[in-house]
Structures are given as structure tokens and as C-alpha cells.
Amino acid sequence: MISILPGLEIPEDDLEFVASRSGGPGGQNVNKVSSRVTLRFDLERTTALSPEQRSRIRARLASRINKDGVLQVTSQVTRSQDLNREDAVTRFGELLRAALHQDKRRVATRATRSSKEQRLQEKKIRTQIKQARGSGKKVWDE
To answer: What is the CA angle 122-127-128, rounded to 5?
Structure first.
């Protein structure tokens, strides 16, 4: 089980791992060993997610999901297939956490009278400074 959020775990049976030849480091070994790992997660068939969570993931990770509804995460960071598999699972978890994260609603506030007056006072000082540039006299010492 891969823990995503409190109360949400993805069973490893829902994940499919495909190994292929990597273009990364490996020297002569790179042509013989399949060290790149692609994690495939079928968003439509999983029972771990609610319909609301599916639609949220579909909307936020649209560029990573193919037309069949499969989310793919690829890792070829290391020469080891096992380490690349762990990295793909970690990145998969991070992607889902970020996609399912709900931002707090902004509470509308109003500017106070003193903050409005302070802003206007600062604008007046700035205006005086700029007007004084042309005449050569200093106004801000007042």
C-alpha cells in the first residue's frame, strides 16, 4: 500500500511497472540492462479513489494522463532498476498529494481607515519628491 493522504492509500496491485532501456548513465551496461522504470496507474479502474478525487486528479494532471485514463511516471535517474522503481513510486505519491491538495479559501477583508490614510500620505510625499526633481530644491525635509 502506498500512503498518499491520511485515509487514502493506493494498493500496489493498481500499479503496473514496465522496465525498458534507459538513456541515462550506465556505460556499456546501458545497452544490455533495462533500468528505466515506468509506473502506470489506471485512473479509471482503481477502487481506491472516489469519483471526486478522480475528477480532481484528471483536471490537475491532464498533461500526464493519456487518452485511456492512465497516469504514467517514468524514472531513469540511477543505473539500478530497483532504485528507479522506488523513485517512480515516490514521485507518483508526490504528484497525487499535490493534485489532491485543497487550497484554503481566501477570506475577503477591507482596508482600514488608517491604512488608506497612510497610503495617501506616502503618495503625497512621493509626489513632492518627484516634483522637486525638476526645480532643484529639497521638499522632503519639511
So the answer is: 100
Amino acid, single-letter form, for residue 41:
F
Residue 11 three-state SS: coil
Bridge-based pairing state of the strands 8-10 and 2-5: antiparallel
Both 10 and 48 in a single domain? yes
122 and 63 part of one domain: no
Q: What is the DSSP track for 86-137?
A: HHHHHHHHHHHHHHH--PPPPPP----HHHHHHHHHHHHHHHHHHHHHHHT-
Structural domain count, the chain: 2
Local structure of 17: helix, strand or coil: strand
Looking at residue 49, which CATH number applies to its domain?
3.30.160.20
pLDDT digit string (tens) for 10-68?
767 777 777 776 665 556 666 666 777 888 888 877 777 777 878 888 888 788 888 88
Q: 61 and 30 in one domain? A: yes
